[in-house]
Write a structure and sequence with these properties.
Residues 113-213, 222-328, 336-440 form the GEX2 N-terminal Ig-like domain. This protein is mainly beta. 8% of the residues lie in helices and 40% in strands. Strand 8 (167-173) and strand 9 (182-187) form a beta hairpin. The N and C termini lie far apart (183 Å).
Length: 554
């Protein structure tokens, strides 16, 4: 029986009947699909020896059917055109979506930089537990933002990737500074090992490195004991503190890759506020670690007063010693570092009263000095000036030594009135806080210290003329006292001790602290003028003042 060989031809116009045209179409009106014309008269298709039944994927109407139903032709042509447009739109969307992702490449489109690898310090010999470091050098231009994936190589040691029985703690240090890129790990097995570095995205494969791990000669860790040189654990600030390092015999400097180079950490008395190395506690940290281990020493200079604990550590030699402590007292006083202030925060005085200041002395490192560190004989230069730089009087300066507050007390008598500056110095160098500002008001009026000044430098006056004097009102220290003070006066005739009659008596304040006294002379003769307080108990300076009154022209 002959097999029925049915051919389902592929979709397309190439196999349309009637030369690839739909019924009713012409080459000009057919769809834009390419086609291969098939001439039934000249082409033996399907071959006569086969019994093919042509089954197109779409129903194509015959001439008779298209005549009977022309809408079928239009519908079929429109469906194919819509499918073609859909396929093209889908391709365009795919290209639009994928194209941006092709711009960054792990994908070979952007040239990858080269990488070179070498051992840090050319050191490829290690002991178990050492840190092995591989330097990564970039050959060419590397900008991380141009690549979709970061540079993240795999490390394989003797065929095993990453952490293994050969190495542990495998990690990379790829910071912003590409000149300092490193790959690190710890060898843990003794032997000779080969390293392969590969990275898929950057086409990296490097097998140029190998390393050797030797067993330690001794499993017993070195042992150290620390103690103060000459058992001295008390120091003045600024002294050198020395710690002896006692090394046991089992320590061989050639056995251990790392030298003895410990860290010194200090904490305060409470065990808090730890600070390593040079700090506000100590400075000048140094070591004496020569070939002779019997002379190994650690040195530093304490600079802060207090009691401190010492911690000595070095991880790779298992050093951890917290057995030591020491105390620090202040150094000798450095006078310019002292701080001066008013006691009681009072800087306003009346002339004649006692002013008090306190100096808080310090050493050169800023520690408060004490009586114990310095003794009681601490003297400073103390004087006062006006704001214009003129000398002002301070009397009875008394430097009284240490007080119960830990400072040096000084007292003096404020004499000159006004707004003043108090200078506290040591050899022309001001203490901190100097000069201090202060104000002095005049004291009480001292009649015996008031001074008369005559308007006319003459002791002879014509009768009926005006005699005038100016009285300067002063306190005990010569400060002008403003205001109007009621003086009393008498004019007495010589020899008879009778008071002279006067007229037009006037008192008035000329300027603050100076008043004028004037009167008319009504009788000729020889007289004395006496100016006193209102109780007539005390005269002003330069009394009595003797003068004469004449008649007629002089």
């Amino acid at each position: 029986m002959e097999k029925d060989r049915t051919c389902n031809l592929p979709f397309g116009d190439a196999f349309r009947p009637n030369n690839g045209l739909l019924s009713g179409d012409t080459p000009e009106t057919s769809s834009s699909f390419p086609y291969l014309p098939i001439d039934a008269a000249t082409t033996d298709f399907p071959p006569s020896e086969y019994n093919y039944k042509f089954k197109p994927p779409f129903h194509y109407a015959t001439s008779s059917s298209s005549t009977q139903n022309p809408s079928i032709l239009r519908k079929t042509s429109s469906t194919m055109a819509a499918q073609w447009l859909f396929c093209n739109a889908l391709i365009a969307l795919l290209i639009l979506f994928i194209a941006p992702h092709l711009s960054k490449s792990d994908d070979r489109s952007t040239p990858s930089p080269g990488f070179a690898y070498s051992w840090m310090d050319d050191d490829d010999e290690f002991y178990p537990g050492d840190i092995a470091t591989i330097k990564v050098k970039i050959l060419g231009n590397y900008q991380s933002e141009e690549y979709r994936y970061p540079f993240n190589p795999n490390i394989t040691v003797n065929g095993t990737m990453g952490n293994s029985s050969y190495v542990t703690d495998v990690h990379s240090d790829f910071g912003n500074d590409t000149n300092n890129w490193r790959i690190l790990f710890k060898p843990i097995m003794v032997g000779l090992f080969y390293v392969v570095i590969d990275e898929e995205h950057f086409r990296v494969h490097d097998n140029s490195l190998h390393f050797h791990v030797s067993p330690a000669e001794s499993n017993i860790p070195p042992h150290f004991i620390f103690r103060w040189l000459n058992y001295k654990s008390e120091f003045r600030a600024g002294e050198i503190a020395t710690i002896q390092v006692i090394v046991f015999e089992n320590f061989n400097t050639k056995t251990y890759k790392y030298p003895f180079n410990p860290n010194i950490t200090l904490s305060d008395y409470s065990g808090k506020n730890e600070k390593m190395g040079n700090s506000s506690y100590i400075t000048g940290v140094s070591y004496t670690l020569g070939p002779d281990t019997n002379k190994w020493e650690l040195h530093f200079m304490p600079i802060m007063v207090g009691t401190f604990h010492v911690l000595i550590t070095q991880e790779n030699l298992n050093v951890f010693d917290a057995s030591m402590s020491f105390s620090v007292t202040p150094a000798f006083i450095y006078k310019p570092a002292g701080t001066v202030s008013w006691r009681g925060e009072c800087n306003h005085f009346v002339a004649g009263t006692t002013a008090k200041i306190m100096v808080l002395p310090k050493d050169a490192f800023g520690n408060n000095a004490t009586r114990k560190s310095e003794g009681s004989n601490v003297i400073f230069d103390i004087y006062a000036t006006t704001e214009k730089g003129e000398d002002a009087k301070v009397l009875d300066v008394s430097q009284n030594g240490w007080n119960r507050f830990g400072g040096l007390s000084t007292n003096f008598i404020a004499a000159t009135s006004g707004n003043l500056l108090l200078h506290v110095k040591d050899k022309n160098q001001h203490l901190i806080g100097s000069p201090l500002t202060f104000t002095v008001d005049p004291g009480a009026l001292d009649v015996g210290n008031c001074v008369p000044h005559w308007g006319i430098e003459s002791k002879s006056f014509q009768i009926f003329s005006i005699m005038e004097t100016f009285i300067t009102q002063r306190d005990k220290y010569g400060n002008l006292i403003p205001g109007f003070y009621p003086f009393d006066f008498d004019v007495i005739e010589k020899g008879r001790y009778l008071s002279l009659p006067i007229g037009d008596l006037k008192y008035q304040e000329v300027v603050p602290g100076v008043q004028s006294l004037s009167f008319k002379l009504l009788q000729h003769g020889e007289f004395s003028l006496i100016i006193t307080d209102k109780d007539k108990k005390k005269q002003i300076l330069n009394m009595p003042y003797e003068f004469s009154i004449y008649i007629g022209e002089s």
